[in-house]
Every structure is written in C-alpha cells, then in structure tokens.
Amino acid sequence: MYKNKLFTLIFIFLLNFQYVSAEIISERGEYVLSRDISEKTCFENAKQRALNNAATVLTGEKLKSETIKICEASFENKAQCELYQSSWSVIDSVTRKGSIKIIDEKKVDKNLYINCEVTIEVDLYRTPKPEPNFDFELDLNQSKFLAGYEWSAEDIPLLVNINPYSNKEMFINIFHWSPYIEGKNVARIFPNPQKEKYDGEINLIKKSTLLPRQNSGYSWKHFFPKGHYTDSISQGILVFASKDNIQFSELYTYEKFQEKLLEVSGNDSRTKKAIYVVIEK
Q1: Region 68-86: what's the mean pLDDT?
Q2: Which CATH number fits domain 136-280: 2.60.40, 1.10.3470, 3.40.50, 1.10.10?
C-alpha cells in the first residue's frame, strides 16, 4: 500500500516536472490579405505567425539568413515562405499544453493594404535538450528545384546527406512537409514505407550517408501541384536521429507530428531541418 502511494507521488512529481518550464505567452501575429488568399487563410496565417512569435519568445530562435535568401530568390510570396520556415524551425523546440486561445481577431486597414491581425494566448514549454555530442550535419543537394506537373528525365530529385559526428551510430528517420496541403501533410520518406515492409530497409548509419541510396530503387521526385496560385512552393525536410530505433507512422498532421516529436525527443535524439523551394518550370 505504502509503495503504491509512493509510486503515485513520484509519477505526479515527474508529470509536473515535465511542465515546469511551461509559460503562458500572449503574442500577436499579422498577415497581409491579398487577392491570392481567402480571408480565412489570412487569419489562419496570422494565428500561425502569432504562435511562431510566442515560440520565438521562449526559444530565442531566429530565421537563418540562408533560408531568408532562399525565400527572396523564389517566386513565391516571401512572407508565406518565411512563415513556413519559422513554423518548421520551431516544431521540435517547443510544444503547447492545451489549445490556442484567441484573444482578439480583426482586419486592420493600413491604407495601401489590409492586415489580418490575431492575438493569442498559449501555454508553451521547451522540449528536452539533446546530448551535445550526439549530433550530425544535414545537407540537401539543392535549395531550389524546377518541376512540372509530370516527372521528366531532366528533373533533379532531392538528395539528403547526413554526416554523423565522430562516426556515432544513429538510427535515421526522414520526414517531408508539404505545408500547402491540408490534413496529413508530414510524410515519412525514409525508411521508405514500401522498402521497409518488403526489403527491410536499414536506417542505422555511422558515417556520411547520401539518401536515398543509389541501390534503393526509388528517388524523391518533385511534382508541382496543379492549380496552385503561385509559381513556387516551399517544402520542408526534417531528419530525426536517435540511439534507439523509434517507430513512426507514415503520415501525420503538422500538430500530431509536433506531439510525436515531443514524445520521443530527449538526450538520446537530435533533429535537423531544412526548407527548400520548388519552382514551376
């Protein structure tokens, strides 16, 4: 009886300790209402920007200049590209407890344009910090890709290079994010679900590895979505490395993926992310 009570107290303490760094943060986000997006999308973007601003308050993370250059060099709306980047950059750094509370939501006439402005209140906390020596370098073969509605031999597929520090063994999972798609828009692309099922694709590495492997029988091709309102789209890559072989689903919504990362992140794991642009040819 005493042991059961002690176990319960320890469990409650650990549960509360997990949220000890949680902070209730109030932040505002704004987004320009243009002809290319609906009012609903404008307010959703403003809310996401407010959430990103709140996460930045907690983590202090800023946009990398390299990514800003990618956004400036694309034909896509720069504000949209940077919104995707900031959303992706904090996905494994913080998570929220409970729902986002909308404090205020309004359209503001700025004379030359109209802003959608949203003020939120959200309970955020930081995810655990990984072990400093368990790390790797992430490189994509390009930051911009040309693509049409159908694949052609001239199109260059995506290649991801992962280089573990000090040849440390690590299990690798790679995820692809298509933010312009509603619903389940985060897909596990390595280990490839089909290859893993039938060929037992191995995701344990300890030296510089280029993925997908040349003998894997598949490639990560790009297709430009039909009917998209811009001439370019931003997409994201996230690499999750861990000492244990953690199992992931094939598809997630952005929010469910954030929850999964919180669940599995810790001292024995590390994530790296990158944004790139696909331009309609």
Answers
A1: 75
A2: 2.60.40
